[in-house]
From TrEMBL:
The chain crosses the membrane at residues 562-582. Keywords: Membrane, Transmembrane, Transmembrane helix. This is DUF4129 domain-containing protein. It comes from Natronorubrum tibetense GA33. Residues 725-738 have a biased composition (Polar residues). It comes from the Archaea. Residues 72-95, 588-624, 719-738 are annotated as: Disordered.
């Protein structure tokens, strides 16, 4: 039954039913309600010629504002005892009052965490995330650098995600222990150790982000900082107990032969490794992490070892070198580390590049480079990250991670895989210089570079766009620049009309450009041919252009695909409200009172009058261009196993296609529209009746429609949207394509 709030009912993906919509009511898990004002955009639709306006808010409803929403407390909203009710604050909604309330909630969260690890699973929830987001927006506002707040949000989300993963892994660990599965418990304990280290690091980074916000504004983030510290402390306390239970501690000692070292004068070190009980880890192959390199050696019967270390990408100003023992993952041991004083003397290497593939290069090609870094003619036995540029444009780094990060406690190395270095569109075509050089500076090996010449060939892009009039002087436009079905970012597209440049648009990361273009004043009442042009010589994309014609307001020009959501709303505004009434009435062809009785609108009266007036026997010709985007969407929904949406969208396509040649169709129900059209197209009555009946079952029927029923309905819709004597293939229409 129709809701008293006359709400907008969202159905599946982009299909929806409209029942005199005033507002969308959404209840959140936190016990509050968002009231989203649903004012349909008053966008003139060229093919429909109609607009939709929201009704005025009734008493007590509040002012309706496009895109605005307010939080309303439910009457039964209850908070835990310690949490203070926002109603206790007597403020009138000013920022200071909201800030104080949110800050108190964050302090309560910090207190929750102080209760121990059991609070963690309930802590990582939507409410806390929402509270912090609101607090940052209110407390920070425009006073500080927005990037600092963005960084804080990102660090905060990453920290909560890691804590959530820790909780899940901890539950698996507890289950394995309870089941007596020692091997699985040990594996989960190692995972927990790594996650605990990540949480400690992420907590520090988030606290630094809070400090940056506080330094640039008057925001007091002490409560949020307290909650982060409490979260980290709870995790580390829990992990300490697991570590003591699952792993055997080890001890490491290292002595260096000299303090001043370089790549040509390496550090020669000796050391010993043993358990905390003093037992040597004897006669074993072991791994050491020295600086950011991994070195393998072996121990003797006393646990003693020797190693040699040549500094490569360690910072040149390093004065203390960390050496860590990395135990075998299955040894049941914790690692150990120590430090030795040192002084780095930088050495200049030589860099050569032997090959670049493919040759020539084009947009999107992935580069394969062979480079050799050497000192005194001997290759450096380590992967040094190299930054790659073409014609001065940074195209990536191989490999991507300049430093390996070692977890000495559980003996793991965390390194990033090599990045994909591809040719961007912003590199000009022709002979260009390709340069490689170490990606980091001020290291033990000083910067050097190698350069070669490569040929960049032009690539033919696929340029397409659609446009529709917004008013006499404005056109809404959307298009894409694609290569091999992939969008090309950062491409400039010029828009011209009658030899005059109107606007330059740029593609986003998906290859899409869009905008609103102002037309010349003398084009208000005539068709305008718009030309989209890409002719930027500073790219490797070939020059290309495509044209599309837009009709004056009231014409039958095609709409952009993205505007068809508005078309669907406009159509449904007239067809959805009477759906329940027509469940019992059906497709009667006899005269009957209007659905609205004495409250009929002028359009309804016009249709009733028109139905009594003799008409020309010639049926109005449907407009295929209007319906094809909707038919394509219907086919997609049917293929995706959603026959109800497919049938409803098919009906909207038929109605949009046929309505452009009829008058006063915006307020007609589906069966009134059926009769109005069939008066002029008796030969299509059977097909339109089949589609209309299918729509009614899909939209209002208890069981909907089956896949095998939806397919013939979609076929009937294609026939109705095509010329009177033929079917229309849904792939025939393209507003503008090359």
């Amino acid at each position: 039954m129709v809701n008293e709030q006359q709400s907008l009912i969202v159905h599946q993906e982009n299909s929806f039913l409209l029942s005199d919509a005033k507002s969308l009511i959404v209840t959140l898990p936190v016990g509050r309600t968002i009231v989203l004002a649903t004012l349909l955009l008053c966008l003139p639709v060229a093919a429909m010629g109609g607009v939709v306006a929201a009704p005025e808010a009734g008493p007590g409803e509040g002012a309706a504002t496009v895109g605005a929403f307010a939080l309303q407390d439910d009457e039964d909203d209850e908070e835990p005892v310690r949490h203070r009710n926002p109603d206790e604050y007597d403020g009138d909604g000013d920022g200071e009052t909201v800030e104080r309330w949110l800050a108190d909630r964050l302090e309560d969260s910090a207190s929750d965490l102080g209760d121990g690890e059991t609070a963690l699973s309930g802590y990582v929830d939507a409410e806390y995330r929402e509270r912090l987001t609101q607090y940052l927006e209110v407390a920070v506002g425009d006073e500080s650098d927005s990037s600092a707040s963005t960084d804080a949000q990102r660090e905060h989300d990453e920290l909560l995600a890691t804590v959530a993963e820790y909780n899940e892994t901890k539950a698996e660990y507890d289950a394995a222990r309870e089941a007596g599965d020692d091997e699985r418990a040990y594996d989960r304990a190692r995972d927990l150790e790594a996650l605990a280290i990540e949480i400690a690091t992420a907590s520090d980074q988030l606290l630094e982000a809070y400090d940056a916000i506080s330094a640039g504004s008057d925001a007091d983030l002490s409560a949020a900082a307290a909650s982060v510290e409490a979260m980290n402390e709870s995790v580390q306390t829990t992990q300490h107990d697991i570590r003591e239970r699952e792993f055997a501690a080890t001890e490491l000692t290292v002595d260096a032969s000299q303090s001043s070292i370089s790549y040509t004068d390496p550090l020669v070190g000796t050391g010993e490794v043993q358990t905390a009980a003093g037992e040597p880890i004897a006669n074993e192959d072991i791994r050491l992490a020295v600086g950011n390199q991994e070195i393998q050696t072996e121990t003797d019967e006393t646990g003693a070892f020797e190693f040699e270390y040549r500094p490569i990408s360690v910072p040149a100003d390093t004065d203390t070198l960390t050496v860590a023992y990395l135990p075998d993952p299955k040894a049941g041991q914790l690692g150990a580390e120590t430090t030795v004083p040192t002084e780095i003397e930088p050495v200049e290497p030589a860099l050569s590049m032997s090959s670049v593939e493919p040759d020539p290069l084009a947009y999107g090609d992935e580069l394969s480079l062979e480079t050799t870094l050497s000192v005194d003619g001997e290759p450096v036995d380590a992967a040094v990250p190299m930054a790659v540029t073409i014609d001065g444009t940074d195209v990536g780094t191989l490999p991507s991670d300049p430093d390996a990060e070692y977890d000495s406690l559980i003996g793991t190395a965390n390194t990033s895989s090599a990045a994909n270095v591809t040719v961007p569109a912003t590199v000009p075509a022709g002979e260009q210089a390709l340069t490689v050089e170490p990606a980091v500076t001020d290291r033990a090996l000083t910067p050097t570079s190698a350069t070669t010449t490569v040929t960049i060939t032009e690539t033919e892009p696929e340029l397409a766009f659609e446009a529709a009039r917004v008013d006499d002087e404005t056109v809404a436009l959307e298009g894409t620049v694609m290569v091999d079905d992939d969008g090309v970012a950062d491409v400039a597209v010029g828009i011209e009309a009658d030899g005059t440049h109107l606007e330059t648009l740029s593609t986003d990361e998906t290859g899409t450009f869009e905008g609103t273009i102002s037309l010349p004043a003398d084009a208000a009442d005539e068709d305008v041919e718009l030309i989209a042009v890409h002719d930027d010589v500073e790219t490797n994309l070939a020059e290309t252009a495509i044209a599309a014609t837009v009709a004056p307001p009231g014409g039958a020009g095609g709409l952009p695909t993205w505007a068809w959501a508005v078309v669907a709303v406009v159509v449904l505004a007239g067809s959805g409200a009477a759906g329940y009434w027509w469940r019992v009435r059906g497709p009667s062809t006899t005269d009957a009172p209007s659905v609205a009785g004495d409250r009929r609108g002028p359009d309804e009266a016009a249709v009733e009058t028109a139905a009594q007036t003799p008409r020309s026997p010639a049926a109005p010709e449907p407009d295929p261009a209007v319906a094809q985007p909707l038919l394509a969407h219907a086919a997609d929904r049917l293929a995706a196993g959603d026959p109800d949406t497919a049938v409803q969208t098919s009906y909207h396509a038929v109605r949009a296609s046929l309505a452009v040649h009829l008058e006063a169709t915006g307020t007609l129900t589906h069966w009134e529209f059926y009769r109005a059209y069939c008066d002029t197209a008796a030969d299509r009555t059977e097909s339109l009746q089949a589609v209309t009946e299918g729509y009614e079952r899909a939209a209002f029927g208890r069981d909907g429609v089956a896949d095998e029923t939806a397919e013939p309905i979609l076929e009937r819709a294609r026939e109705l949207c095509g010329p009177a004597d033929s079917s229309t293939d849904t792939d025939q229409f393209t507003a503008a394509d090359d």
